[in-house]
Amino acid sequence: MxxxxxxxxxxxxxxxxxxxxxxxQGVPDEAPEFQELFRRIQxxxxxxxxxxxxxxxDTHYRKWIAISLSGEVLIRDxxxxxxxxxxxxxxxxxxxxxxxxxxxxxxxxx
Length: 110
Description:
Blueprint: H1 12-24, H2 32-53, E1 64-68, E2 73-76, H3 79-90, E3 95-99
Antiparallel strand pairs: 1-2, 1-3
């Protein structure tokens, strides 16, 4: 995985506008246009986590982290709390949301 930053990250507004355009044009979910759109979000989110999120793995393990496009960080106990706080602080879609764990997604039954 490369953590090299692109010139400019896609914003939530840009993502939603392009997503809506593709849907209205009837483009299938598995089409290259959709795949590229989601690849841009994934690359952005991977970079933000590698650059700004990883240092919190040891100190805030199993909490949720939201990272703005400029590297500001919010840490909360649940994904809902983190997403709500991040949307309020950074704007809808203008952040990466991950769990501070070896697998940075949802934790299944334990």
